[in-house]
């Protein structure tokens, strides 16, 4: 009976990476969120960091489905853009490469006509 050494693993094991919003991205999103809360439009938010996407969900009330989702998908960086705003029905309202430009679709909701 011959004892053989275990076969070495080649390379490191691949652990799933997690996509998250960077501090500067969160600053832009939370700035808009604060203005909408002050206007009484939004009340709560949630952040999810998943394997392929980071999601900032916006709620009118805590127990509801999100009104809007701001998603970051780095895999789409070279295609349509990695940022997207998605409505309650799943429709993509705006997609692009620049977060501030994509969030303008939500800022329009803040502008109201004054009587």
What can you tell me about this protein's structure?
- This is DUF2794 domain-containing protein.
- The protein is α+β, with helices and mostly antiparallel strands.
- It has one domain (23-107).
- It is 22% helix and 23% strand.
- It has helices at residues 23-38, 99-107, and strands at 44-49, 54-59, 68-72, 83-86, 92-96.
- The chain has a five-stranded antiparallel beta sheet.
- Helix 1 packs parallel to helix 2.
Radius of gyration: 20 Å
Order of helices and strands: HEEEEEH
- Strand order in space, largest sheet: 1-2-3-4-5
Percentage of residues in DSSP E strands = 15-25%
Helix residue percentage:
10-25%
Class computed from helices, strands and strand pairing: alpha+beta
Sum up the overall morphology in one term: elongated
**Unreliable residue stretches:** none
- How would a crystallographer describe the biggest sheet? 5 strands, antiparallel
What integer is the average pLDDT? 82
Number of strands: 5
For this structure, the quaternary state is single chain
Protein name: DUF2794 domain-containing protein
Organism: Shimia thalassica
Pfam families: DUF2794
Topology:
Blueprint: H1 23-38, E1 44-49, E2 54-59, E3 68-72, E4 83-86, E5 92-96, H2 99-107
Antiparallel strand pairs: 1-2, 2-3, 3-4, 4-5
Pfam family, one: DUF2794
Protein name: DUF2794 domain-containing protein
InterPro entries: DUF2794
Produce a short descriptive summary.
The chain has 115 residues and is α+β, with helices and mostly antiparallel strands. It has one domain (23-107). It is 22% helix and 23% strand.
């Amino acid at each position: 009976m011959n004892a053989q050494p275990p076969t070495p693993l080649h390379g490191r094991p691949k652990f799933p990476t997690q996509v998250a919003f960077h501090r500067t991205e969160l600053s832009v999103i939370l700035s808009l969120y604060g203005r909408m809360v002050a206007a009484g439009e939004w009340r709560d938010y949630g952040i999810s960091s998943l394997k392929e996407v980071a999601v900032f969900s916006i709620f009118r009330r805590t127990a509801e489905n999100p009104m809007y989702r701001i998603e970051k998908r780095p895999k789409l960086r070279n295609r349509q853009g990695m940022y997207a705003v998605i409505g309650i029905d799943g429709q993509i309202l705006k997609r692009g490469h620049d977060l501030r430009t994509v969030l303008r679709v939500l800022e329009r909701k803040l502008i109201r006509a004054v009587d």
